Amino acid sequence: MNHRVPSNCRYQPTEYEHAANCATHALWILPSILGSSILYILSDDQWETISAWIYGFGLSSLFIVSTIFHTISWKKRHLRTVEHCLHMFDRMVIYFFIAASYAPWLNLRELGPWASHMRWIIWIMASIGTVYVFFFHERTCCRESLLPRAASLCRRYKLVELVCYVIMGFFPALVILSMPNRDGLPELVAGGFFYCLGMVFFKSDGRIPFAHAIWHLFVAIGAGIHYYAIWRYLYRPLDASEPR
C-alpha cells in the first residue's frame, strides 16, 4: 500500500490495490444480474415485478458503476474529468442502492400507518444525498497551497457524506418494528452488521493494505445476505408444509 494521505486528498492505490478494487466488485456483476432475473421470474403480481426491477437495478448498478470507476481510475489516469464524474456517480449510486434494497420490504410487506410513508421518504433521502454529492463531493482538491479552512471544509464534507450513508441505512430499518410479519429480520440485521464492519476498512486506506478491496468484500457479503432474505421471505414459493 502507499502512504496515507491528508483527509483533503484522495488516496492513490498501488497497482495491486487497483486490481483488487476492480476484481472484488466485477466478480459480482453477473451474479447480481442473474439474481435479479430470478426475482423477476418468481414475481406473481405487479408490485413484486416492480420491486424486483427496482432492487435488481440498484444491486447491479452498484457493482457495475463501481467496477467502471475503479477501472478508469486504474488504467485511464489521464482522464481526470471522467474519473471525477465517475467517482461522484459511484457515490450517488450508493444512495439509490440503499433505497432499492429497502424497496421490496416496503412494497411487499404490510406496514403500520406511519411506516407506510417510508416508501417515498427513502427516495427523497436518496435524491437529497445525490444532490449533496453533486455539489460538495471533493469540491476542494488536494493542492500543496490548500488553505487550512478549505482542508477543514473538505474533511467536514467527507464526514457528512459518511453520516448520510449511515442515517439512510438505519433510519428506514425502524419500519421493521411496525411489520406484523418480521420474518427475515435476523438476515437484515446480519447484512447491516457486515456493512457497518466494512466501514472500518472504508476509512482505512493507507493504514491497512487493500483496505478498499476488503470494504468491497464486506459490501458483497452484506448484499448477498440481504438478497437471500428477499428471495427467501418475499419471493420464494412456500412449500405445502410451510405455514403462511
State the helicity in percent bands.
55-70%
The number of distinct helices, counting runs of at least 4 residues, comes to 8
Q: Which CATH-level-2 architecture?
A: Up-down Bundle
Uncertain segments: 143-147
The total tally of domains equals 1
Beta-strand percent range: under 5%
CATH fold descriptor? Rhopdopsin 7-helix transmembrane proteins
Mean pLDDT: 86
- For the secondary structure, the number of strands is 0
Based on helices, strands and strand pairing, what is the structural class?
mainly alpha
CATH class group: Mainly Alpha
Order of helices and strands: HHHHHHHH
Question: How does the major sheet shape up?
Answer: none
Distance N terminus to C terminus? 52 Å
Radius of gyration, CA atoms, in whole angstroms: 19 Å
Taken from the alpha-carbon principal axes, the silhouette is globular
Concise synopsis of the structure shown:
The protein has 244 residues and is mainly α.
Protein traits:
single chain; 244 residues; mainly alpha; Rhopdopsin 7-helix transmembrane proteins; Monocyte to macrophage differentiation associated 2; membrane
Please provide a written account of the structure.
With 244 residues, the protein is mainly α. It has a single domain (15-235), classed as Rhopdopsin 7-helix transmembrane proteins (Up-down Bundle). Helices cover 70% and strands 0% of the residues. It is built from 8 helices and no strands. The chain has helices at 15-26, 29-42, 46-75, 80-108, 118-136, 148-170, 185-202, 211-235. Helix 1 runs antiparallel to helix 3, helix 4 packs parallel to helix 8 and helix 5 runs antiparallel to helix 6. The longest helix is centred in the first third of the chain and has 30 residues, at 46-75. The radius of gyration is 19 Å and the shape is globular.
